[in-house]
Amino acid sequence: MKQPPEQPPARAVALQYDGEHAPHLSAKGEGDLAEQIIAIAREHKIPLYENPELVRLLAQLDLGEEIPHNLYLCIAQLIAFAYRVQGKVPPGWTEPAAS
Description:
With 99 residues, the chain is of the alpha+beta class. Helices cover 33% and strands 13% of the residues. It has 3 helices and 2 strands; from the N terminus they run ββααα. The chain has helices spanning 32-43, 52-58, 72-85; strands spanning 11-16, 24-30. A two-stranded antiparallel sheet has the order 1-2. The N and C termini lie far apart (64 Å). This is Flagellar biosynthetic protein FlhB.
């Protein structure tokens, strides 16, 4: 009897963004460490986004390293989404006037 393929271990990364500088990698891990990162995010009500390819790219960074320029737009969209989900707006933000 053929066994189903084993699932790869969970992977997780966390980014920190201060609103002034490029986001940087604040945590990364696989397996149990990834599960702990996810649990801490949930505990602090930090929105989670699942994208294995993006995690693979970000996991290549060293802790504390800023995201690469080619990921700025992607990460900016995720940060904007996370702000919106949490009902937050960046400091100094004003909603554009409706046309």
